[in-house]
Design brief:
Blueprint: H1 3-7, H2 16-20, H3 23-32, E1 35-40, E2 45-50, H4 53-61, E3 65-66, H5 69-72, H6 75-79, H7 101-110, H8 115-139, E4 141-143, H9 144-161, H10 168-178, H11 189-209, H12 215-221, H13 232-246, H14 248-263, H15 265-273, H16 278-289, E5 298-300, E6 304-306, E7 309-311, E8 316-319, H17 321-324, H18 359-376, E9 381-382, E10 404-406
Parallel strand pairs: 2-8
Antiparallel strand pairs: 1-2, 3-5, 4-10, 5-8, 6-7, 9-10
């Protein structure tokens, strides 16, 4: 055993240092404690994190690891405020229920995702990206997070769901508050989820009165062959889930991807000269540094042994997506960015029944927005020293706070 193995991980899980660079700790865990027990910072609850690719897939695919934390979690976990409050809309949300309820919700929710509609979204994204690039070009110096990724994500989601764009920043703030890593801020989580659901309810009510070609209107109207429809709470919860899943995470992914290409100019050049690699590049960039750090909590429904570790019934388990995507057992040279890489699938959008419902749209936005940026600005460069960049303190989302760049390559860094 190495001295590193004896001394423990380089930084503590979900600590300020971890958020800035989680990979050394995740790599240590893969090698030394792949099913690792620690105290979750909110509530000081015993929790397990899984970091190897095959184990992560197992947790996300095995029904004995339930998404219904409110049903199976220990009283200690529930008391920490880490599950949706009983009787709320989110308690029945698609991300936190198991089959058969999940199967029904997913079937109804996916019906509007037709080939024709996705193709229409492609044109929507292209138009939004084009206008946003023009705005950035006029600035010459701009922040990728706010001026580009944030604008593309917000305007795309607004067009597709039909919500008012001026509410976007408010919704992003609420989303950040909904997943606190600081125990002192747990009281903000419930009200934050409440604000997202309130806006979702307003949007559903508005679209009932004034339906359009947007996805919210389509969800209201959709039904299966038996005439089954989403009820009001299910509709509100579904739209809320799409707001939470399609806004800040897309913004975070585009920002992470742009930084990865700035760090690897050879790969940016390859993408610029080989536009046919745009789709493949998105997959590799999602693997290399995606926006989802982890999947949401799973809770064991019975005692389970995983990779030699016994998990008690009711154990909260976190599937480490960032870790799995750099597991050398699955990806050769995982620390190397290679946009021509093919073969092995990443878990950047999760895995199994609860894989990201908006993955097709996120891929589409990434494919268009990332390629268009490097093509439009071949001399794009950081406008601050690399070491000044910071990530938000979030256990669930990996996102830069800012990414200042210069289009001309003349940096003040």
């Amino acid at each position: 055993m190495t001295s590193a193995a004896i001394s423990g991980p380089p930084t503590a899980l979900f600590s300020p240092a971890y958020y800035q660079d989680p990979y050394p700790t995740l790599t240590w865990l893969q090698e030394n404690s792949p099913v690792h027990e620690f105290r979750f910072p909110v509530g000081d609850v015993p929790t397990w994190i899984v970091t190897r690719y095959e184990d992560v897939k197992a947790v996300l695919a095995d029904p004995r690891y339930s998404a219904e934390a409110a049903t199976y979690a220990t009283p200690e976990f529930k008391a920490a405020g880490l599950v949706a409050a009983e009787g709320t809309i989110l308690e029945r949300g698609i991300a936190v229920v198991d089959p058969p309820h999940h199967t029904r919700l997913r079937r109804l929710a996916m019906k509007p995702f037709t080939t024709r509609r996705v193709q229409e979204w492609r044109e929507t994204v292209r138009a939004i990206v084009g206008r946003t690039l023009e705005d950035c070009a006029r600035r010459e110096r701009f922040d990728v997070m706010d001026d580009y990724a944030g604008e593309v994500a917000a305007k795309t989601l607004g067009e597709i769901l039909g919500f008012r764009i001026e509410r976007h920043r408010e919704l992003v703030e609420a989303l950040n508050q909904a997943f606190p890593s600081d125990p002192a801020l747990i009281h903000e989580a419930g009200p934050a989820f409440g604000r997202i659901c309130e806006y979702s309810a307003e949007l559903v009510a508005e679209k009932r009165l004034h339906p359009g070609e947007d996805l919210t209107s389509a969800l209201i109207q959709t039904s299966d062959d038996d005439g089954d429809r989403l009820d009001e709470d299910e509709l509100v919860g579904m739209v809320a889930a799409m707001i939470m899943g399609g806004s800040d995470t897309v913004r975070g992914f585009i920002g992470n991807a742009v930084l990865a290409l700035l760090d690897h100019p050879d790969q940016a050049d390859l993408l610029r000269t080989s536009p046919d690699l745009a789709g493949n590049a998105v997959e590799e960039l999602l693997r290399y540094d995606g926006a989802l750090s982890t999947a949401l909590f799973r809770v064991t429904t019975e005692e389970i042994e995983l990779a030699g570790t016994k998990l008690p019934a009711g154990a909260p388990v976190i599937a480490g997506l960032l870790a799995a995507n750099r597991d050398p057992r699955h990806f050769p040279e995982p620390e190397r960015l290679d946009i021509a890489r093919t073969g092995k699938r990443h878990v950047g959008f999760g895995h199994g029944l609860h894989n990201c419902m908006g993955a097709a749209l996120a891929r589409l936005e990434g494919e268009i927005a990332i390629h268009a940026l490097v093509e439009r600005f071949p001399k794009l460069a950081l406008d601050v020293p690399r070491e000044e960049l910071r990530y938000i303190d979030s256990w669930a989302i990996r996102r830069l706070t800012a990414l200042p760049v210069t289009a001309s390559g003349t940096s003040r860094a």
